[in-house]
Amino acid sequence: MVTPALATSAPAIGALRVAEPAAFGRVAVVMGGQSTEREVSLDSGRNVLAALLARGVDAHAVDGIPALLDALRAGHYARVFNILHGQRGGGEDGVLQGALESLHVPYTGSGVLGSALSMDKVRSKQVWIAEGLPTPRFAALRRARRALDVHGAVARLGLPVIVKPACEGSSVGVTRVLREADLDAAIALATRYPGDLLMEELIEGDELTVAVLGGVALPSIRIVPRGDFYDYHAKYQADDTQYLCPGLEGQAEADIAALAVAAFDALGCAGWGRVDIMRDRQGRNFLLEVNTAPGMTSHSLVPKAAAQAGIGFEELCWRVLETSLPQTAQVHT
Q1: Is 20 one of the catalytic residues?
Q2: Strands (DSSP E) along the chain, which ranges?
Q3: Given 82, 170, 300, 324, the catalytic residue
Q4: How far apart (Å, rounded) are the C-alpha atoms in residues 286 and 175?
Q5: Candidate list 43, 200, 207, 289, residue with the active-site label
Q6: Confidence band (pLDDT; 50, 70, 90) for 4?
Q7: Is the pLDDT assigned to residue 171 strictly greater than 90?
Q8: Is 276 a catalytic residue?
Q9: pLDDT value at 333 more than 50
Q10: pLDDT band per the 50, 70, 90 thresholds, residue 9
Q11: Is the per-residue pLDDT at 230 higher than 60?
Q12: For residue 3, is pLDDT > 50?
């Protein structure tokens, strides 16, 4: 359920850079893949494909990275709309971006560095801390060590904490730990997924997200789930989650927009993405993570923010596709 909040000034979204769909050439919309977020990616991809086709783009669905690379080597596509989610067979960890760079094929969204840094929540935080940007206190739990000192980490951070895989999205494997007795179960859940773990101070307050499109922050969204927090069910299945857009007003909205763009830029991200932020009871903002290929499902947040800024779903997909063009390109054929 989307609930409009008080209106704020619209973001300075520029004019479309491409006038005719033929300028994009034949487009591969890569979706699905092999990550834990496969089903969400397929849903996103179907929506993106339908939107591009509706605007006359010669777009085609491709499932996963191996099929995409085979098609690109055969010369079937001019560019790629990447709507894969996640790592290890998803398209958000820099692996796909590196392959596309080697083939000299343009693609949407962030490049190798921005994708890889954003996928790793621990390294994202390390960059933000180096840049003086606020993020919750945390402990990195490295699998390479023989034993994860989880109870020592809790003693340093203090309860409550969040335990999550360091390199997953869509709230996969995430647990709020309010009592130390629940810690072992949280660790067991997070270790079902590959990679390191992250234990993070739980910020009590409001969860917000800010989409970034072409270097501009779209209106923030304040997320009000019916349950305790915004888990996988609340994101993709529940119809009773409230989304207040814009999530803040006045200077507070301007501040969170500036923080989102700074966080996005610090990680070397480009094109489009979404920055997740917690705002505590004192009005202080804390960066959680950046998603470089956010969901485009009926429950997804970037389309909601774009709509608040006057950008419909078809136009949003067109604008994201424009991020595959060089920044200086202006095509009116």
Answers
A1: no
A2: 2-4, 26-31, 58-63, 79-82, 138-141, 161-165, 175-177, 197-201, 205-213, 216-217, 221-224, 242-245, 272-280, 285-291
A3: 170
A4: 18
A5: 289
A6: very low
A7: no
A8: yes
A9: no
A10: very low
A11: no
A12: no
> Token pair of 149, please?
């000192």
Three-state DSSP class for 20?
Answer: coil
Please state the rounded mean pLDDT for residues 122-149.
87
Catalytic residue, from 41, 220, 291, 324: name it: 291
Give the pLDDT score at 180. 86
The catalytic position among 38, 222, 274, 319 is 274
Q: For the chain, what percent of residues have pLDDT higher than 70? A: 88
Cβ-contact 293, 317 below 8 angstroms: no
295 is catalytic: yes
Q: Which two tokens stand for residue 80?
A: 């790629």
Q: Which one from 231, 276, 279, 324 is the annotated catalytic residue? A: 276
Catalytic residue among 17, 32, 35, 37: 37
Q: State the amino acid at position 243 in one-letter form.
A: Y
92 is catalytic: no
Burial 166-203 (b: 16+ CB within 10 A, else e): bbbbbbbbbbebeeeeebeebbebbbebebbbbbbbbb
Active site residue 289: yes
Which tokens sit at 248? 């803040």
Examine the residue annotation and report whether 170 is marked as an active-site residue of this protein. yes
A 10 A CB-CB count for 276 gives 21
